[in-house]
Write a structure and sequence with these properties.
Layout: E1 2-11, E2 18-28, E3 33-38, H1 44-51, E4 59-68, E5 71-72, H2 76-82, E6 87-90, H3 94-97, H4 104-115, H5 121-134, H6 140-143, H7 153-165, E7 171-175, H8 183-199, E8 203-208, H9 211-217, E9 220-225, E10 228-234, H10 235-239, H11 246-253
Parallel strand pairs: 3-8, 3-9, 6-7, 7-8
Antiparallel strand pairs: 1-2, 1-4, 4-5, 9-10
Helix pairs in contact: 4-5, 5-7
Bound molecules: adenosine-5'-triphosphate (ATP) and magnesium ion.
Residues 44-45, 175 line the site of magnesium ion.
Length: 313
């Protein structure tokens, strides 16, 4: 459905240039939920924005191609044709993404009218009510008249999802949609996205820094580090610790489980590196890796069979 090939994005700033995304490739199949996990700063949001051509200088795409159903998206005209249309996006902070001075009903209706200029306002309003009920907001007709500040964060995220669905997209990109919410609400939003995925055959790219979430929602997950995808694996393999890349294992070991008796939680030693020319012939995770050998610092492992590592688990 959506295919990303050898995408590279760089920060072209005079003082601190670096590679934000290096040689990123993946395919999103129809009806699939693809998870993307990575630490803060690993390039997840830039990846989402690049797919929709929303990056601006000094952040520049330097290589790669993006295809939606066999058709390459090349210039802004191609992207404008699919953005908020065949491909929709929701963000981390729902309350901040809505306009505080309009009711949620007005905002959803406006989105519907933007995509269907020929329908009457009353019909758009009725569609908005049915979208609110689709995202499981109780008493949708009444809620239409609420302002964002009168609703909880979880309710506002449902409103954002309703707006994203207003154009009947085929692909939804969700960038940390539950990060600002508490865990019970988080679970409800996850279940809602899963429901939409199944009922509407919606393909989803689910971005998060929380690997634990991906075992619950994603069919497949890409593990990102400093702008590179180090591993791609299915939910079952992730859950049952059948990963091959040491970084995926290290990330997984950081997640506390219920009943965990450890006095201290694991962390990965060191900090995330800025990717750049010094990693052209070196594994980007080598400096923090417990399985590092001499080869890892003079050659870059190719991504093959779902991972890029010379000394896989
Ligand atoms: N407009 C910009 N100018 C300069 N640097 C930028 C810009 N946008 C992003 N970056 C840098 O690119 C890198 C990737 O950023 P990105 O926002 O994609 O990370 P992320 O994985 O989404 O992190 P988080 O989990 O914190 O949201 C970061 O190092 C960030 O500082
Ligand atoms: Mg981000």
């Amino acid at each position: 459905m959506l295919s990303i090939n050898n995408l590279s994005v760089e920060l072209k700033s005079p003082d601190n240039p670096f590679i934000i995304l290096r040689d990123v490739s993946f395919r999103l199949k129809k009806g699939e939920i693809l998870g993307i996990a990575g630490e803060s700063g690993s390039g997840k949001t830039i990846l989402a924005k690049t797919i929709l051509n929303l990056i601006r200088k000094p952040v520049v795409k330097t290589a790669g191609s993006i295809f939606l159903d066999e058709k390459e998206l090349k210039d802004e005209k191609d992207f404008a044709g699919i953005r908020g249309n065949r491909v929709s996006m929701i963000f981390q902070n729902p309350t901040g993404s809505l306009n505080p001075v309009f009711t949620v009903g007005a905002q959803i209706t406006e989105a519907i009218l933007a995509h269907n200029p020929n329908i009457k306002k009353k019909e758009a309003w009725e569609r908005a009510v049915s979208l609110l009920s689709e995202v499981e907001i109780p008493h949708p007709a009444e809620r239409m008249n609420s302002y964002p500040h009168q609703l909880s964060g979880g309710m506002n995220q449902r409103v954002m999802i309703a707006i994203a669905l207003s154009c009947d997209p085929e692909v939804l990109i969700a960038d940390e949609p539950t990060t600002a919410l508490d865990v019970t609400i988080q679970q409800q939003i996850i279940l809602l996205i899963k429901k939409l995925n199944i009922e509407k055959k919606l393909s989803v790219i689910f971005i998060t820094h929380d690997l634990g979430l991906l075992t619950r929602i994603a069919d497949e997950s890409c593990i990102m580090y400093a702008g590179e995808i180090l591993e791609r694996l299915g939910a079952k393999d992730l859950k049952e610790n059948r990963m091959r890349h040491p970084y995926t294992r290290a990330l997984k070991d950081c997640i506390p489980a219920i009943g965990d008796k450890r006095q201290y939680l694991n962390t990965i030693k060191g900090t995330i590196t800025f990717n750049g020319a010094s990693f052209d012939n070196k594994c980007v995770f080598a400096d923090r890796c417990e399985r590092k050998t001499e080869r890892c610092v003079r050659e870059k492992p190719e991504f093959r069979d779902g991972f890029s590592c010379f000394n896989p688990l």
